[in-house]
Amino acid sequence: KGHNGSLVGSPTYTSGKVGNAINFGNNSNLNCVDIADNNDFSFTNGTNDVPFTISLWVNLTATSANGSWLISKRSALNDGNDEWQFILFNNRIRFSKHQFNNNSIAQITESPINALSINNWVHFVYTDNGSGALSSGKIYRNGVLFTESNTNLGGTYTRMNNGTNITRIGMPSWSMNSISKLRGLIDELAIWKNRELTATE
Prior knowledge:
Layout: E1 6-8, E2 12-15, E3 20-23, E4 32-35, E5 52-62, E6 68-73, E7 84-89, E8 92-98, E9 106-110, E10 122-128, E11 137-141, E12 144-145, E13 149-153, E14 167-169, E15 183-193
Antiparallel strand pairs: 1-4, 2-3, 3-15, 4-14, 5-10, 5-15, 6-7, 6-14, 7-8, 8-9, 9-13, 10-11, 11-12
């Protein structure tokens, strides 16, 4: 759909799970991929959330001190741009959706602990039915349902913003910092809006 990312810093292409992958480096270099804001990456219709799915292969070469950001679209400034983030945090895979006009409220879907594996390709998928209910989000690892908890933090979550922040791969979308960068490779990233993939898919 013409959503071409821009390489920031010096990520490189290397052999991946399928063809080539992007290698963000096992170091503190500020490497990421930025994609311009577009409604295709905002999973709300302005009244409610809509179904969506995010899928990717990850090969970590090391963990980062403050978690490893896979892909995100938020600002953390409570300025109407907080939307969502998909991260590896405290040895879990976590997806968070941030409340419309109130970033102190979020809905968190998490896997059990020990989700991570170093120097191995792992397939992670987050699906969402768009209802905003606690059961709306699901995490899969290597094709198997891998959700441990769904939690509202700070209040009752209803829907996300449609913000103007970039979508960033490999680092937080609001901050270029090495303590949260992905150390490793990402391949076959795919996003579906208005579609919650089934377990079979």
